[in-house]
Design a protein that fits this description.
Number of helices: 11
Shape: globular
Largest sheet: 8 strands, parallel
Distance between the termini: 43 Å
Strand content: 5-15%
Strand order of the largest sheet: 3-4-5-6-7-8-9-10
Oligomer: single chain
Number of strands: 10
Number of domains: 1
CATH architecture: Alpha-Beta Barrel
CATH superfamily: NADP-dependent oxidoreductase domain
Radius of gyration: 18 Å
Order of helices and strands: EEEHEHEHEHEHEHEHHHEHH
Helix content: 25-40%
Length: 300
């Protein structure tokens, strides 16, 4: 049986380890982010994933600070990830932007720093900045997010440090099979964003049958599938019951036949909307900015 609990860690190509499951906080305002982090850490989570673009680094930082005190933990007990905002990409602007993220998070360093998206003509300079930030000790590991094979190949031609992670959309409907195979040959770990796949996966008839078979929720079936594929996963929830439920996947294992049932659900749909961002297509209608929430970070 593939053993799993919230203390389960995976080794990265730089020698560092990270929890295999953590909490995602995309589309969560600062107040909710603070509360979600506190609930997650209280219930055993040790990894938190945020980004400048989410607009909630302040709330996440406040939640981390409170959680360390509330649970008698030290900073190095938690694994914290943030990401370089597209508007900050470039060498000097990335360094300045990351230092701003650290201030909002109230941290001296993050455990993992990712390039959020491969901004045209800038991501190589951004990567050089991440290499420098790692050497300076402001991040332990560095990686990327939303890089397809051509962009990842391009980055690798000049990188002196190989990305440890590529964080991609990964769920039963979108399984990134070709990219996963490419990453495996380069010893780059896959971390799944949107691991539950929304209604298309959670309401899928085959997954619901498996949920009934194993006496688990559809979300637990999907997250267990992630774990058995050796994928790092960061399900998002702001409800304590679901935060706890998401982690309760260590007491069963999907059979190889049932793993194949989910593998066969892949629709190979495109999740990398490069043409929808202004940094790639000036005519784009999709905005590319830091989210603005109704709650004021100054009140966190």
């Amino acid at each position: 049986m593939t053993n799993f609990d919230l203390d389960t860690r995976v080794k990265l190509n730089d020698g560092h380890e990270m929890p295999q499951m953590g909490l995602g906080v995309w589309q969560v305002d600062n107040h909710t982010a603070k509360a979600s982090v506190q609930m997650a850490v209280k219930n055993g989570y040790r990894m938190i994933d945020t980004a400048k673009q989410y607009g909630n680094e302040t709330g996440v930082g406040a939640g981390i600070k409170a959680s360390l005190v509330d649970n008698g933990l030290h900073r190095d007990d938690l694994f914290v990830t943030t990401k370089v905002f597209n508007g900050d990409q470039g060498y000097q602007t990335t360094i300045a932007g990351v230092k701003g993220s650290l201030q909002r998070l109230q941290l001296d360093y993050v455990d993992l720093l990712l390039i959020h998206w491969p901004v045209d003509h800038k991501y190589k300079d951004t990567w050089r900045a991440l290499e420098a930030l790692q050497k300076e000790g402001l991040t332990k590991s560095i990686g990327i997010s939303n890089f397809d094979i051509p962009r990842l190949q391009d980055l690798l031609t000049d990188a002196t440090i190989k990305p440890a992670i590529n964080q991609m959309e990964f769920n039963p409907i979108d399984q990134q099979k070709e990219l996963r195979q490419f990453m495996q040959t380069h010893d780059i770990r896959l971390e799944a964003w949107s691991p539950l796949g929304g209604g298309a996966a959670l309401n899928n008839a085959e997954i619901l049958k498996l949920a009934d078979k194993y006496g688990k929720s559809a979300a637990q079936i999907i997250l267990r599938w992630d774990i058995q594929h050796d994928v790092i996963t960061i399900p998002k929830s702001s409800h304590e019951k679901r935060i706890i439920e998401n982690s309760q996947i260590g007491d069963f294992e999907l059979s190889s036949e049932d793993m194949q049932i989910i593998d066969d659900l892949d629709q190979a749909k495109a999740s990398l909307w490069y043409d929808d961002f202004p940094w790639h297509n000036p005519q784009s209608k999709m905005g590319d900015s830091v989210k603005v929430w109704p709650d004021s970070p100054e009140k966190i």
